[in-house]
Amino acid sequence: MVDLRSDTLTLPDKEMLETILTARLGDDGRVDASGRGEDLTVNELEDLAAEFTGKEAALLCPTGTMGNSCGVLSWAKSGDKILVHEQQHLLLTEKFLFDEGFCRMQPVKYKFNKNETPDLKNMEELLASSGAKLICLENTHNFSGGYCIPVEEMQKIRQLADRYGAHIHMDGARLFHAAAAMNVPVREITQYVDSVMFCISKGLGAPVGSLLCSTKTQIAKARDIRKILGGGMRQAGIIAACGIYALQHNVTRLKEDIENAKLAAELLRGKLQNLVLQAEVQSNIVVLDLCNTKTTPAQFCQMAEAHGLLIRPVLSHCIRLVFYKGITADDAKKAAAIILDLDKQL
Questions:
Q1: Neighbours of 335 (CB within 10 A)
Q2: Residue 78 is part of which domain span?
Q3: Taking the CA of residue 88 as centre, how many other CA atoms within 13 Å lie in the half-sphere pointing to its CB?
Q4: Same domain as 189, residue 261
Q5: Which of 3, 17, 82, 263 lies at a C-alpha separation of 20 to 30 Å from 269?
């Protein structure tokens, strides 16, 4: 069985798990005068995350949803208007910030241009009309098929935000895949945002955790918000140790995931009769559209599983393949062969 449902399926290897045994532990929930917790391994991971992203400080959170929530809530309050893409993970899957039972923030939905990146003209119109003071980005963008926002476009969005006095929070769950895809240091992307969250539990291969990075002032606010949300932890060094290993050993290999995704896409391109392949595969995600068929995404996933391929539906009309550590080029070839065979049956 080839399992391409998500890169959250990435498993820690033995060397990563062994770092837990020697991790320096303490109570991360008890902070000193500078706002740092007592778990030295957590502090080391947070410092490393801040260094990678070029920010002053970082905060370890149990999940990406909590990291994004703490980041946004450090800039905005309940009921505020926020610019968010109409298919952003924050909006469609995490939901907490916009749920009527919780934060009740008002999404002001911007669109993408033909390159699957934020439409600057549309964003400016919305900033002008809504008065929103926070822009949320996602890089890479999950549901579009892992498209990256290029560095030069990040700069233009920064300039736009500055003209309207807005801050920028970036959901960078797969930020390191974006950097690998564009062949740039992570901080070259994140220099244009005020806060950024990235996951260590996806392609980087750690079992748990996400890091929120920003200024010392914003991270101090986020630490208080994390506690309110139930995210305060004690001897969290057992999580952080794996995160340190991931950032020290698993960053350069992310290009393998991208190569395997592109391999599968090239084996499909020009050969599909019914499924529609995304225009360009840039990172470790491949999306196929079933809009020209009478088969639902859930039905197609069931068909694929019967042939030895696990994938998942996204949105209302698409399926998604995600490539990660442990998935080989042969797996990519097998997945493409199964999809080609099923495509003929639609």
A1: 28
A2: 12-249
A3: 31
A4: no
A5: 3
